[in-house]
UniProtKB/TrEMBL annotation:
Gene Ontology molecular function terms on file: ABC-type transporter activity; ATP binding; ATP hydrolysis activity; ATPase-coupled lipid transmembrane transporter activity
Record localization: Cell membrane
Membrane topology: Multi-pass membrane protein
Keyword flag Lyase: no
Main location: membrane
Pfam families registered for this protein in UniProt: ABC_membrane (PF00664), ABC_tran (PF00005)
Segment forming the signal sequence: none
Keyword Membrane: yes
GO cellular component term of the entry, any: plasma membrane
Name assigned to this protein: ABC-type multidrug transport system, ATPase and permease component
Length: 429
């Protein structure tokens, strides 16, 4: 029986597996943050080169300045390209292992559930969540750890450069950014709820597909192909409706953000032209300010494009976390020991058992099977023959009484050691 720490929130779950490779991911974070320096300083060097061309200095001094500025720009670009290639190599090593750690964790946890759990939950739904959750965590980690941090750094440096040029440029940019982020966060809750509902619909749809193909023999024998197709169509229509609603919520957000971007550019360009008219800005500022402004818009719009992905992946992770919110019904005791079989005597002592639905199977059952005896269980279908074997394997816990092997209560030994000592040939073979 696996004993695992269970992170129950999206952030904790993603971070729990990140810590296993924290050094590697920290290096990637640092390298991506360095990318923001290149992205923001490129317009700055361009501005200096243009101002040099319009200066009153000699051509030799201007040429020397241009070569120095161009050399710094080329060196910065080269270093950042090398850094990003290094980050790519580290990502190629770390992210597959990150997915594998999550997949192994989920598989290990779910396989420790009881027999009843797998009878009452769709196998396809479980498989869909286990296969989809690692990829969702990877996408979310990549967006926040690598892209959001690097773009956040670039935005910060860009606003600082705008402030150095003229404080009003920075103020205009900050006001636009605050309004943009504020509207996005206010809209986020509705988008998140819609995406979570869509993720649940996708998991249910995938579960139905897997279940039909796993039971294809029954579908063929009972000529239920059209019935299953109708059920599939109903589930698919539900997924389509939820997906359309989720995307429409995101599009409404984008419309508001587009209007804000238009007002931002108009305000910034108006002040830039006014500054030129009154001699407050240099020719190079006409390169710096628009380049930084459009760069800011591009980076923020790229982040906007990640919003549907973020909501979708958070929804997928939350759907997967439902697997971890169902506790084990049968657990080994803290002091459970290994089963030691000598002669192999089996005793059912005053055993009572009812199924969760309330159906009574055994009441005060006494049964003794001496060691090295061959016996057969005979009875009508549903009389409890298979249930008796499952109780012996501790696939169910008895409601009262005890089952003992060589005078050892099976509730006091580990489930693994118990099942290692019992050979079973399933009746459907």
């Amino acid at each position: 029986m696996p004993t695992l720490f269970i992170p129950t929130t999206v952030a904790r779950f993603v971070a729990y597996f990140l810590r296993k490779q924290q050094t590697c991911f920290f290096v990637q974070f640092t390298l991506c943050f360095g990318w923001s320096t290149k992205e923001a300083l490129f317009p700055f060097f361009t501005k200096n080169m243009i101002n040099s061309l319009y200066s009153q200095q000699t051509k030799s001094i201007i040429l020397q300045t241009l070569l120095w500025q161009g050399g710094c720009l080329f060196l910065l670009w080269t270093v950042m390209e090398l850094a990003m290639r290094w980050q790519g190599i580290l990502a190629a090593q770390s992210f597959p292992q990150y997915r594998a750690d999550i997949r192994t964790y989920l598989f290990n946890y779910v396989q420790g559930q009881t027999y009843d759990y797998f009878n009452t939950h769709s196998t396809g739904d479980i498989a869909s969540k286990i296969s989809g959750m690692p990829r969702a965590c990877e996408n979310l980690l990549e967006i926040f750890l690598l892209h959001v941090t690097s773009i956040g750094g670039a935005i910060t440096i860009s606003i600082i450069l705008l402030g150095v040029t003229d404080g009003y440029f920075a103020v205009i940019s900050v006001i636009w950014l605050v309004l943009h982020v504020g509207i996005s966060f206010c809209w986020a809750k509705m988008c998140h709820q819609a995406s979570e509902q869509q993720a649940m619909a996708v998991a249910a749809l995938n579960g139905k597909i897997v279940d039909v193909f796993m039971n294809i023999m029954n579908v063929l024998l009972f000529a239920q192909g059209q019935t299953e197709l109708n059920r599939f169509a109903s589930s698919q229509q539900e997924e389509v409706s939820r997906a359309q609603y989720a995307r429409w919520m995101v599009e409404k957000l984008k419309i508001c953000q587009s209007l804000l971007a238009v007002f931002y550019l108009l305000t910034l360009l108006s002040y830039l032209i006014g500054g030129w008219f009154y001699g407050m800005v240099s020719p190079g500022d006409f390169a710096l300010v628009p380049m930084l402004a459009f760069s800011l818009l591009g980076m923020v719009w790229w982040l906007n494009g990640q919003i549907p992905i973020i909501f979708r992946e958070v929804g997928n992770i939350k759907a997967g976390l439902q697997l971890l919110k169902i506790p084990y019904q049968i657990r080994d005791k803290a002091e459970a020991r290994l089963l030691k079989v000598g002669s192999g005597e089996i005793i059912f002592h005053d055993v009572s058992f009812n199924y969760p639905c309330g159906q009574s199977v055994f009441q005060h059952l006494f049964l003794s099977i001496p060691a090295k005896q061959k016996i057969g269980l005979v009875g009508f279908s549903g009389a409890g023959k298979s249930t008796l074997v499952r109780l012996l394997l501790r696939l169910h816990d008895v409601d009262a009484g005890a089952i003992m092997i060589d005078r050892q209560n099976i509730a006091d030994v580990t489930q693994h050691s118990l099942r290692q000592q019992i050979a079973v040939i399933p009746q459907d073979l």
